[in-house]
Amino acid sequence: MSNSGAWGPAPPGVDLAEDQSGDIIGTVVAIMIIGLAAVVLRLFTRSMKTGPGLAIDDYVIVFAAAMGVGTAVCCLISVPWGGGKHLWVVSREEFTKLFQTTYAFVIVYITCISATKMSILLFYRRIFGTNVIWYIVFGLTLAHWTEVTITWLAGCRPMDYYWRQYTDPTATGKCIDAPLFYFCNGIIGLVIDVAILLVPTPTST
Predict the structure, then answer these.
(1) Residue 129 contacts residue 121 (beta carbons within 8 Å)
(2) Where does the protein principally reside (predicted)?
(3) Do residues 25 and 10 make contact, with C-beta atoms less than 8 angstroms apart?
(4) Tens digit of each residue's pLDDT (9 = 90 or more) over 117-146
(5) Which pLDDT tens digit goes with each residue over 20-59?
(6) Which of 144, 164, 188, 200 could form a disulfide with 171 if both were Cys (CB 3.0 to 4.6 A apart)?
(7) CB under 8 Å to 78, separation ≥6 — which residues?
(8) 12 exposed, middle or buried (CB, 10 Å; 0-12, 13-18, 19+)?
(9) Residue 102 CB: number of other CB atoms within 10 A?
């Protein structure tokens, strides 16, 4: 395979024939099958005649599962556009499609994750009731989703500069520091995850 392309020559030692698209497909499909099976089993168990019936946390997890399918679709459709391959064998047109998919993925992903966390919190409410900590963590989860969504959608002006900045020499615009955005929100998400684990912990009165 040629050692040059739209992005110039590859660094020495890079195997341009390397292709991890099969790993992407296998991993995504396996995880989605397991996740959807768990949700279906949950709904089946709770909706049985002898079961308690569906509650709001069940409906929210169904929405989260739908968003999870959306993230899987984003991953799978990236494969024909060069997902899993080295940059130097990806054309500029394919790169544009990849970054457009990435742009959509962020919104679908944060919605999926936030809905999952809200479902867990609503499950806690059904089992343990609510307290001040529950409301704080639920509010933080909703606020985090809002912050990520608004920041991401407004992060590039114009919006298409997110993908055109790398492929179109005539493109002009400005974007936030995406790696810093991912890093900071990853930390915030981790803190919220830990807080969710602590919500059911009894507090002294």
Answers:
(1) no
(2) membrane
(3) no
(4) 999 999 999 999 988 999 999 999 999 999
(5) 889 999 999 999 999 999 999 999 988 886 667 889 999 9
(6) 164
(7) 24, 84, 97, 98, 101, 102
(8) exposed
(9) 15
Closest CA to 134 of 113, 149, 120, 146: 120
Instruction: State phi, psi for 52 to the nearest 5 degrees.
Output: -80, -10
Length of the chain: 205
Helix or strand or coil: residue 17?
coil
Enumerate the domain spans of the chain: 21-198
Backbone φ and ψ of 49, nearest 5°: -60, -35
Instruction: Say how many Å lie between the first and final Cα of the chain, rounded.
Output: 69
Helices 92-128 and 132-153 sit at what angle, rounded to 10 degrees? 170
